[in-house]
Amino acid sequence: MEVLTLGEKIKLKRKEKNMTLKELAGDRITPGQISLVESGKSNPSIDLLEYLAQKLETDIEYFLESEEKQASRICEFYSNLTDSAISAGNFLRAIEAIEKGIFYTQEYNLTYFRAKFEYSYARIYFEKGQLEKAQLHCLTANSLFLKADCIDYIIRSFIMLGNISLEMGYTNTALNYFMQADTILSDYNHVDELLKAQILYNIANCYMKLGNLEQAVNYANLTKDKLSTIEDKRKYGETLMLLSISYANENNLVEALKYAKLAQKIFSLIEANSEIAEIEKNLGILYSQTDNIEESFEHLEKAVKLKLEQDNKSIADTLVVFCENYIRIKDYNKALEMIDKILKENGDDEKVHIKCFEFQYKIYDGLNDMKNLEKVLLSAVKYIEKLDHKKELADFYTLLGKFYLKINEKELAIKYIDKGLDLYKSLGLILS
Q1: What's the CA gap between 94 and 101, in Å, rounded?
Q2: Cβ neighbourhood burial of 376 (10 Å; 0-12, 13-18, 19+)
Q3: What are the pLDDT digits (tens) for 105-118?
Q4: More confident residue, 216 or 261
Q5: Number of helical (H) and strand (E) elements in the chain, helices listed first
Q6: Is the full-model pTM beyond 0.70?
């Protein structure tokens, strides 16, 4: 893809039609004049452009489109390609598309698309765990979005800066970014219910991490209310669709189209089910941490329902929170049932499998079931020894050693505790 001058466009269309200069000139002008236009040495009049467009069977708008407009279209193409590649986890392809797009943003001073590409860089580095790079690109994107007055992306970049800060351990900084996002959304009356819900949840999460439980609960409840509003909008959208169908059946196409468009607008706001599912799951975690287990289960059930509707592969992480809740309230039978579901959904995931061993340990320890406790610990060690998870292996060696110490098997206890200590030392977690 490239930006073409007016002359290059005419020449390209002529070549596509297999026309000679003489054939294109016809009786209107000379082939030499056409050649001068194609080489950029002469500017054609509007009348001549209309003639050329007609001869080349194209719209005159194609010839009149500025180079900046062409560059914007090319950048939009590369931006869409980048988004698709990131969604597919193909970061190499995404970076390749970004680099091609940035060339045009620099050549034609396209601030908005430069900001979008910087934002995409931030997304990629955040996913890869390269937080300092992600932060740098997101700050650049935020500054450019502010310059271009792109309210939606100003808010989104503040949210991303908040998430990056949280991952870096700067909770107060993260809270400030989320508060800024909320302020801009309110000040500009920017209507995006899902963004609002994400911001409210993130503020609640920050207060939870800072130990301010009262504010955490307040914002968690605001998030819950906002999600309820989104659900109401779904019902409103469904009602609009029914009206549209009714009018269509009466051959009143004007009203049918009107309500169909209104419905589409509503659904475009609420059909981000994967994001809603994630918020519901996170609310489940938040309410669990505040010991509001009943409320936690309610949101986790909503998250599971949404993920099942989408055939979402991340359902296991929600089931994990379910299991943690059951262990917390000492409903060990339910917890064991949930472990079976987790392994069925995502048993191939090494981290998930190890997490299930941790749950089984807590369950059998809570039940004081020594036979199954030893079985689980030995199974966990055997499984993790085949993997490259040294920290987790050290943890289970230590747990197994403590177990044998508890049942007076001192020789085995020393063996596994020493194995755990050696691994911790190799990881630099304890001094030699």
Answers
A1: 11
A2: buried
A3: 998 899 999 999 99
A4: 216
A5: 22, 0
A6: no
